[in-house]
Amino acid sequence: MAFARLREDIATILEKDPAARSRAEVLFCYPGLHAVMMHRLSAPLWRRGWRFLPRLLSHIAKVLTGVEIHPGATLGRRLFIDHATGVVIGETAEVGDDVTLYHGVTLGGTSLHNGKRHPTLKDGVIVGSGGQVLGPITIGAEARVGANAVVLSDVPSGATVVGIPARVVRRDRVDAAHHCEFQAYGTPTDGITDPVARTITGLTDHVGRLAARVEELERRLAAGLPGTAADGAIETAPGGHGSAGDDTGEADAVTTLPVAALHGTQAQPIPLRATAGGGEGPGSGPGGAAPGNGDRMAPEAAALPTPPDPAVERRLAGR
User: Fold this and answer.
1) Higher confidence at residue 215 or residue 2?
2) How far is CA 68 from the centre of its chain?
3) 215 and 236 both lie in a single domain
4) Tens of pLDDT along 18-41?
5) What is the DSSP string of 13-57?
6) What is the DSSP secondary structure assignment for residue 219, as one 8-state letter?
7) Phi and psi at residue 229, in whole multiples of 5°?
8) Are residues 160 and 217 in the same domain?
9) Contact between residue 50 and residue 66 where contact means Cβ atoms under 8 Å apart
10) pLDDT at 255 over 50
11) Residue 274, domain extent
12) Shortest CA distance to 70 belongs to which of 81, 59, 85?
């Protein structure tokens, strides 16, 4: 049984590491394999209730290999710890079959209680160098954790996560007939961009579209084209009165500001009358303008009624 597992481990290393040249080289020169072999000696003792001797074996393995695996951890078959330096696997961690860990990986706990406090890695997981998987979370089958990622929550099967904290950047199909392609260091190199960079790019594109819309509205206003309330433009309609100082007798223009479009409410638009100042003096006629030069915008009198005087109302009530 033990030798069959050892042959599996050696075959796995030869398959996943192109630098491995022979079985003898793997057996004598791969500290990750030595750490796994030592754990297979200490773990049964831990399960039988022994405490000191398993911890001593674990400590010896750490000194010799640079890999610290608590004897209480559960390791599956064909585990490959590549480069095997600075790897830490906590007491309640569970590692499935065909898992690959690189140097600097930590499967750590985030609490002080004695229950389940370390992560669970399902079959086929790859954790890149420096990856930190913390807490009683689950990394789904065939998932990939990128180099230096910090994983604080569950990762779905077939997902690739990168960053601090880790974010999903890709998901692959995982089932009995489809297995994810082996990905060295668990880090994608085929055009995957950082999620934050993608978000910033999306915001920049949106701002560009808004700027183009504002320019179009300004062009329409400058050309005197009618706009719509949905566009946020100013609508202009002919009025019914002559303007002051207008020798041609042309009708005033009544401009409606789309208040509802600006404020997102159902309020009625406020009509404004465009009046032309025909000179320095006051205008004449019903549409007379205030003194001054140039065109002016004035509210229609009918749109702004004058409230009654409270003092007059009290006198009338006393009679």
Assistant:
1) 215
2) 34
3) no
4) 999 999 999 999 999 999 999 999
5) HHHH-TT---HHHHHHH-HHHHHHHHHHHHHHHHHTT--HHHHHH
6) H
7) -65, -35
8) no
9) no
10) no
11) 226-319
12) 59
